[in-house]
Design goal:
Length: about 160
């Protein structure tokens, strides 16, 4: 599995933002105000991925605190890497969705409902960005360290 490319994440954000912005032109007046529930949900997911990444990295690198822990299951590490990659893609799409929403309501901030929706969508965009970063961190933590013996062989 290859590492997540930032260009793909940016493309997902841009495509989702453009799609939502265009879609809202026709249906925004029929929608209810956005709820705040996505903000804490995304932040808790980001926190969970950061904690998992730190613990997994400590186990992989045999840190002192993790020495008493069970050995790392290679299949579990692969699953965590896949989770990080999938979370990064999903969070990039969510970032685009709420960024598109914020851009759509931006011209109408003098009205109470669009102002509320702008604040919620901006906060959710930031939360989705945090989840994207946490997912990339989890994916990075799943990398296997290079073996010093292999480095010596490559130099010869």
């Amino acid at each position: 599995m290859r590492a997540t490319r930032p260009s793909l994440l940016l493309a997902l954000v841009f495509a989702a933002a453009l799609s939502v912005w265009a879609l809202l032109k026709g249906v925004y007046s029929q929608m209810v105000p956005l709820p705040w529930t996505a903000v804490p949900t995304l932040l808790l997911l980001a926190l969970g991925e950061i904690v998992t990444g730190v613990n997994l990295r400590n186990k992989i690198h045999h840190k002192a605190a993790a020495e008493n822990a069970r050995p790392v299951d290679p299949l579990g590490v692969a699953r965590m890497a896949a989770l990080g990659k999938a979370s990064a893609h999903a969070a990039a799409v969510l970032t685009g969705v709420f960024l598109g929403f914020a851009l759509h309501v931006l011209p109408n901030l003098d009205l109470p409902t669009p102002r509320h929706d702008f604040v919620v969508s901006a906060a959710t965009t930031v939360s989705a960005l945090a989840l994207t970063g946490a997912a990339l961190f989890l994916e990075w933590c799943c990398r296997i360290p290079e073996d010093p013996e292999e480095k010596k062989k490559e130099r010869r």
